[in-house]
């Protein structure tokens, strides 16, 4: 796109300076190129836009993301809240702060008693962004109450902090009465806003899981709770490869996803497929974790069920199995590797080519 912009600028400069022929026919021919060039520029800008949406996990607009120009790392995902809460820039450069510092202060229980946030030290913590007016939130809360009790009963030090997005204090009070955990006071709007900024919350319900040091384990607490009702996998560290299901399909919209479709109908038949791609997934996760960056690709295996059929239909994929794909829903693009045998080498090369932008996308 830089080259294109340079070419357009040179073309316009030449026109202004009179260095392009004044012959009417030649000028007309040159001018005819402008619409094509304009379309090409728009296409380039579209792809740049999609890459930025994916890179910064943008799911809604308007959205303002602050980055460190020296490192390219995200400083703050919720820039709109920064502008609202700190219009004079007193907290500039708005870098991330430790959870303990941001949450510091009194926390409520639903019996109106308070406890200091320092009691969270040494515990696993779930930071729960939710609201009573949101039906998916209420559904998740019912499940989360049971999960919370099971984890506590198993002996783990675990606490949840509710950060309300309710529209009134009465709604907050009614909703919080159903919860056995802690909450940031509804009247403390500044602290609720800072927690939203800290984790770049763009939608609810969102459940952030933190380890005993306050470091993030996963942003996908909602998916983990729904997929593991018995809480056997607590504290729900990210798994390199997921089995596609209705509860985790929402992650397909959060960025590019590799999906390996296989001929498997019974439980357990997906294990060989998971074992095939797991080493590659682990390698990618470790590489980007070392750079303190989010993994650019999620990994799924999918068998033969309604969820897989719906995904194939929606993305217009062939019925072949095995079928190796990378789906980028936000860019409405897919990459397909339809070969008779899928080996670790085939998967690794496919992933490498995708990350190097060597693959040609097909539209979804």
Automatic annotation (TrEMBL):
UniProt cross-references to InterPro entries, sorted A to Z: NRX_PDI_b, Thioredoxin-like_fold, Thioredoxin-like_sf, Thioredoxin_domain, TryX_NRX_thioredoxin_dom
Gene that encodes the chain: NXN
Domain of life: Eukaryota
Known EC number: 1.8.1.8
A single cellular component GO annotation: nucleus
Catalyzed reaction equations: [protein]-dithiol + NAD(+) = [protein]-disulfide + NADH + H(+); [protein]-dithiol + NADP(+) = [protein]-disulfide + NADPH + H(+)
Any one of the GO BP annotations: negative regulation of Wnt signaling pathway
Family designation: Belongs to the nucleoredoxin family.
Name of this chain's protein: Nucleoredoxin
Pfam families to which the protein is assigned, alphabetical: Thioredoxin_8
GO molecular function per UniProt: thioredoxin-disulfide reductase (NADPH) activity
Residue span(s) of domain Thioredoxin: 55-255
Database matches in CDD domains: PDI_b'_NRX, TryX_like_TryX_NRX
Lineage: Eukaryota, Metazoa, Chordata, Craniata, Vertebrata
EC class (word): oxidoreductase
């Amino acid at each position: 796109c830089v080259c294109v912009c340079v070419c357009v600028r040179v073309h316009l400069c030449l026109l202004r300076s009179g260095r392009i022929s004044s012959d009417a026919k030649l000028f007309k021919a040159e001018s005819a190129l402008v619409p094509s060039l304009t379309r090409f520029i728009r296409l380039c800008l579209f792809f740049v836009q999609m890459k930025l949406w994916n890179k910064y996990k943008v799911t809604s607009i308007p959205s303002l993301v602050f980055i460190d120009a020296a490192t390219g790392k995200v400083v703050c995902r919720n820039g709109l809240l920064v502008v609202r809460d700190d219009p004079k820039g007193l907290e500039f450069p708005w870098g991330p702060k430790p959870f303990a510092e941001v949450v510091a202060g009194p926390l409520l229980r639903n019996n109106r008693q308070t406890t200091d946030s320092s009691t969270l030290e040494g515990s696993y913590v779930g930071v729960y962004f939710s609201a009573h007016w949101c039906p998916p939130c209420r559904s998740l809360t019912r499940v989360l109450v049971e999960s919370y009790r099971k984890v506590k009963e198993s002996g783990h030090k675990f606490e949840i902090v509710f950060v309300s997005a309710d529209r009134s204090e009465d709604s907050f009070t009614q909703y919080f009465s159903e919860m056995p955990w802690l909450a940031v006071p509804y009247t403390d709007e500044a602290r609720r806003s800072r927690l939203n900024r800290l984790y770049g919350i763009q939608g609810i319900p969102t459940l952030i899981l933190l380890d005993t040091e306050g470091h993030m384990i996963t942003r996908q607490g909602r998916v983990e709770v729904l997929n593991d009702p018995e809480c056997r996998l607590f504290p729900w560290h990210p798994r390199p490869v997921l089995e596609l299901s209705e509860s985790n399909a929402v992650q397909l919209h959060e960025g590019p996803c590799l999906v390996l479709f296989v001929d498997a109908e019974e439980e357990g038949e997906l294990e060989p497929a998971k074992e095939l791609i797991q080493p590659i997934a682990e390698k990618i996760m470790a590489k980007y974790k070392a750079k303190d960056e989010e993994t650019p690709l999620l990994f799924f295996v999918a068998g033969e069920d309604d969820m897989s059929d719906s995904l194939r239909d929606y993305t217009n994929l062939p019925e072949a199995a095995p079928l190796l794909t990378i789906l980028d829903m936000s860019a409405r693009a897919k990459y397909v590797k339809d070969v008779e045998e899928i080996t670790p080498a085939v998967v690794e090369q496919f992933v490498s080519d995708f990350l190097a932008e060597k693959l040609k996308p097909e539209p979804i």
